[in-house]
Amino acid sequence: MDKKSKSFLEKYLNNASPTGFESSGQQIWIDYLKSYTDTYFTDTYGTAVVVINPEAEFKVVIEAHADEISWFVNYITAEGNGGSDHQIAPSMRVNIHTPNGPVKGVFGWPAIHVRISGKEQAPSLKNIFVDCGCNSKEEVLKLGVHVGSVITFEDEFIVLNKKWFTGRALDNRIGGFMIAQVARRLKEKKKKLPFGLYIVNAVQEEIGLRGAQMIAHRIKPDLALITDVCHDTNSPMYDKKLSGDQKCGKGPVLTYGPAVHNNVLNMLIEVAEKNKLPFQRASASRSTGTDTDAFAYSNEGVPAALISLPLKYMHTTVETVHEDDVEHVIDLMYEFLLQLKAGHDFSYLK
Question: Which CATH architecture has domain 3-69+156-339?
């Protein structure tokens, strides 16, 4: 990975973009892509779209989602502590986002020799709290913190053993990075596409694919390739019989399922095999749980497929992926686009 790519990735991942508050990260993403594309637009809720060949009739989408898991201040006590989600790991450092800028805080938790004196309690909505160094509710409010203030973890991007990318929000800003790299490669290699390419970074995926639903209706694409993350089930505590067998370092994961169009999936497999790109397989008996579903079932139905990046420790501050997999997802999307003909009919029955 060159310095420009790594600099963009680090800046993009370290920026907080919680669901409903993605705009700052979207601006970073748009600014990076402006020189590689022809135009861009955004919708009311902040989904960002950059376009190559906007005049073309046949429209192809490559898509990721921009939002990350976050928490809201729910209550401020008289002693100056705020409530949050029961899934938060105690002792984590956080940023509370306010009109005055980020306010530092920590998720407090009693010492173990206090807790073991009685019945052990797991973190829950009833007992977890954020301490931002205040002694009263008035002090908290003076900092700009209020009910509804959004909270994100403070952890930043690092590289483990030269090849492993680790940080919060790789789900799925690493997807936004990958689709951006496809656009950059097309521009730098001076490749001309016979169709319009819409590179989409959707908002609000984590709460029900909302951004993808909105933008799919606006663009009305003829084809959609979605990239998201999936679990590395070779990590500890997974049951492969239930979760499948996917592993970081072995390539992108291609999913079979009702929302995934088999003809698009088969074309992806053909491209991977022709270009000797590694890939893995997974299945989803119902929905994929990704923006693939939103595009597939939008308008009159859009042929759609899912390219997943294996990831360890999903929805934590140490989400981890392998650099080789990142490069192979980019390679697969790029090669797929180069061989695609405008107007290709993916219909099952003709």
Answer: 3-Layer(aba) Sandwich (3.40)
